[in-house]
Specification:
By secondary structure, the chain is α/β, with parallel strands linked by helices. It has one domain (6-236): Rossmann fold (3-Layer(aba) Sandwich), CATH 3.40.50. The chain has helices spanning 44-51, 73-78, 96-102, 111-117, 119-123, 134-147, 164-180, 190-196, 214-219, 221-228, and strands at residues 6-15, 18-28, 33-38, 58-63, 66-67, 81-84, 152-156, 183-186, 197-204, 207-213. The strands form two sheets. It has a six-stranded mixed beta sheet with strand order 6-7-8-3-9-10, with helices on both faces. It starts with 5 loop residues before the first strand and ends in a 15-residue tail after the last helix. The chain binds adenosine-5'-triphosphate (ATP). Adenosine-5'-triphosphate is lined by residues 15-16, 18, 20, 38, 40-46. Residues 6-230 form the ABC transporter domain.
C-alpha cells in the first residue's frame, strides 16, 4: 500500500479528567476519500479536533511523514490541512466572494481551481452566503479549503441534516474536491460513504474498532450492524438517502 498521507497512532485525548479518546489509529490514503465512521459519541469529531491540535492530545499524528502532535494548531494548519466543520462555518451576511476572501492564507490563492471545480461559486460571487442552498454552502465550505495549497481536507459530516437531493449535490462536491486533494470524511450517510470512500476507519468508544475497505465492511451485514448500528443490511437503513 502507498505511504499514508496522514498516519495517526494511539491518539489519546483527556478533557476535564474524562478519557474521550484512548487509542485511535487512523490512516488517510494519499488520494481520494477515506471515511471516519462510528456511532454517535464514538469520538469522530474529537479525533478531527485532536488532529488539528484544538484539544490536548498525545500519541502520534504524522502528516506526510512529519510528526505534528506537538505542534500548535496554526502550525498544523500551515502544513496543509483544510477543515470544513460540521456547521459549515459560513458567514451568512457576507457574499460568497467575501467568504472565500476571508479564507485566503497563501499569497496566491488558487481561485482557478475553486472556480473550475465549482463554477457556481463564480456565478454567485455577489450573493449573500446565507441565501444559498445547503449544497451551495457546502461548496463554499469546501471551496475555502481548496483556495490554499492544502495536502488534506477534513470534512466533518457535510451531509448532516440535508434533504436527499442536496445530499447528492454535496456528494458530487466532495467527489470533485477529492480529485484535487485527498479528503478525510466524517460521515453517517452510508450511501455517501459507499459511493466516495475506498477505505474507512470505524471508531467505537474512543478507540479504533475496525479499519479496511469500505465496500467489504458495508457488505458484511453483521459487522456493519455491530460497528455502525445499522439494520440487517445498510442499504435498508433510513440513513441511506441515495446520493
Ligand atoms: N469538550 C468535551 N468535554 C467533555 N466531553 C466531551 C467533549 N467533547 C466531546 N465529549 C464527549 O466525548 C464523546 C465523543 O464525542 P465526539 O463529538 O467526538 O463524538 P462523535 O463520534 O463525533 O459523535 P457525533 O456523531 O454525535 O458527532 C461523547 O461522549 C462526548 O459527549
Amino acid at each position: 500500500m502507498a505511504e499514508p498521507l496522514l498516519a495517526v497512532r494511539d491518539l489519546r485525548v483527556v478533557i476535564g479528567g474524562r478519557h474521550i479518546l484512548h487509542g485511535v489509529d487512523l490512516e488517510v490514503a494519499p488520494a481520494g476519500v477515506t471515511a471516519l465512521l462510528g456511532r454517535n459519541g464514538a469520538g469522530k469529531t474529537t479525533t478531527v479536533r485532536a488532529v488539528l491540535g484544538l484539544v490536548p492530545r498525545s500519541g502520534s499524528v504524522r502528516l506526510g511523514g512529519e510528526e505534528t502532535v506537538q505542534l500548535p494548531t496554526h502550525a498544523v494548519v500551515r502544513r496543509g490541512i483544510g477543515y470544513a466543520p460540521e456547521d459549515r462555518g459560513i458567514f451568512t451576511a457576507l457574499t460568497v466572494a467575501e467568504n472565500l476572501r476571508l479564507a485566503e492564507r497563501d499569497p496566491e490563492p488558487d481561485y482557478a481551481l475553486v472556480h473550475s471545480l465549482f463554477p457556481e461559486l463564480k456565478q454567485r460571487a455577489r450573493q449573500a452566503a446565507g441565501t444559498l442552498s445547503g449544497g451551495q454552502q457546502q461548496m463554499v465550505a469546501i471551496g475555502r479549503t481548496l483556495l490554499n495549497r492544502n495536502r488534506l481536507i477534513i470534512a466533518d459530516e457535510p451531509t448532516k441534516g440535508l434533504a436527499p437531493k442536496v445530499v447528492t449535490e454535496v456528494a458530487q462536491v466532495l467527489e470533485r474536491a477529492a480529485e484535487a486533494v485527498p479528503v478525510l470524511l466524517v460521515e453517517q450517510n452510508l450511501a455517501v460513504v459507499r459511493r466516495l470512500a475506498g477505505g474507512c476507519t470505524v471508531l467505537a468508544d474512543g478507540r479504533t474498532a475496525h479499519r479496511g475497505a469500505t465496500a467489504e465492511l458495508l457488505e458484511d451485514a453483521e459487522a456493519a450492524r455491530r460497528l455502525l448500528g445499522v439494520g440487517r443490511h445498510p442499504a435498508a437503513t433510513p440513513q441511506e438517502a441515495r446520493p
